[in-house]
Design the sequence.
């Protein structure tokens, strides 16, 4: 075991990237505080959802609306995208001589998985609308539409951010601001995994059990 | 590229050699799958009673969240420069009070009002 100090959440770039590693501590910590406030938002929307579970107003409930198989595939896609994002940051950290190829390749794969997740999620929401599950139908559905699409919106925003960073890598190479941006996006990307686990467990698995 | 010598350095990395780092990510991925697949299976094929399922889902979710924080967000129990872990615990406390309180109070109100 080593007893080194981790300067910030997520992979630390270390002394091989002295400038970025020095700047990252304050930047990633600030972003981490922001993520924790986001966690409160999601947590309270989840609590609201739980209080609304019985308020169906004669409309469709969880067992009428949700399907396990697409949720299962979405979960696998999101978990895998977390691994590929980790690979992108690892190849940034250890890639010889600032080669952008491997970093961009892993980021591209992560983007594909993220966009696939959003597309499947959109398809699910459309299917729910088709089953009479519009947000205004009942308190339960209002709470559902406040919670689950908000997470998909976060993933969409993260994917757009990823494209912006990839464009910067393409244009400017792996400079210090690109490196610290990648560390912050990594925190967001892995954080969205944690939120999705909570949503899957309470909304989908809990609702279908 | 020389061999990594950063482990003793004050500005170094806490994550060990590149091989250890890679292995740590793969472990995280493997554990997260291990905590996902059986739970989906149990729900899909109803391996347990409903109450047991809910307990299993809750336990797997907590384990999964711990795995995500440990292996992907690199939160450790000690050796952080900033109060990253304390922030998580404080946020969990706030959520426990506000989220748990919301569910408790509204459920209580519901039963007093003769709800379903």
Sequence:
């Amino acid at each position: 075991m080593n007893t080194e100090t981790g300067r910030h959440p997520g992979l630390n770039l270390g002394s091989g990237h002295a400038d970025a590693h020095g700047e990252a501590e304050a930047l990633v910590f600030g972003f981490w505080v922001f993520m924790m406030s986001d966690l409160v938002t999601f947590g309270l929307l989840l609590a609201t959802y739980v209080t609304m579970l019985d308020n169906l107003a004669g409309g469709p409930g969880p067992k009428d609306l949700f399907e396990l198989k697409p949720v299962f595939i979405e979960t696998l896609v999101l978990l895998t995208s977390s691994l590929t994002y980790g690979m992108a940051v690892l190849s940034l950290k250890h890639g010889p001589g600032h080669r952008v190829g491997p970093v961009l390749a892993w980021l591209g794969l992560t983007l594909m998985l993220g966009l696939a997740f959003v597309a499947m999620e959109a398809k699910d929401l459309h299917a729910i609308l088709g089953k009479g599950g519009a947000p205004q139908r009942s308190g339960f559905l209002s709470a559902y539409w406040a919670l689950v699409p908000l997470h998909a919106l976060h993933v969409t925003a993260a994917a757009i951010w990823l494209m912006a960073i990839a464009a910067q890598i393409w244009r400017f190479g792996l400079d210090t601001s690109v490196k610290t941006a990648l560390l912050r996006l990594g925190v967001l990307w892995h954080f969205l995994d944690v939120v999705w686990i909570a949503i899957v467990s309470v909304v989908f698995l809990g609702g279908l059990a | 590229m020389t061999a990594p010598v950063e482990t003793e350095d004050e500005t170094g990395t806490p994550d060990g050699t590149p091989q250890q780092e890679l292995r740590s990510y793969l472990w995280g991925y493997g554990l997260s799958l291990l905590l996902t697949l059986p739970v989906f299976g149990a729900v899909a094929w109803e391996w347990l009673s409903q109450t047991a399922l809910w307990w299993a889902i809750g336990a797997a979710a907590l384990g999964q969240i711990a795995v995500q924080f440990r292996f992907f967000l690199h939160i450790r129990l000690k050796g952080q420069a900033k109060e990253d872990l304390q922030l998580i615990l404080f946020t969990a406390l706030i959520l426990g009070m506000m989220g748990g309180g919301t569910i408790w109070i509204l459920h209580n109100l519901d039963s007093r009002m003769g709800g379903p």
Remarks:
- The mean pLDDT of chain B is 83.
- Residues 80-116 of chain B form one domain.
- The two ends of chain B are 68 Å apart (CA to CA).
- Chain B has two domains: 14-74, 80-116.
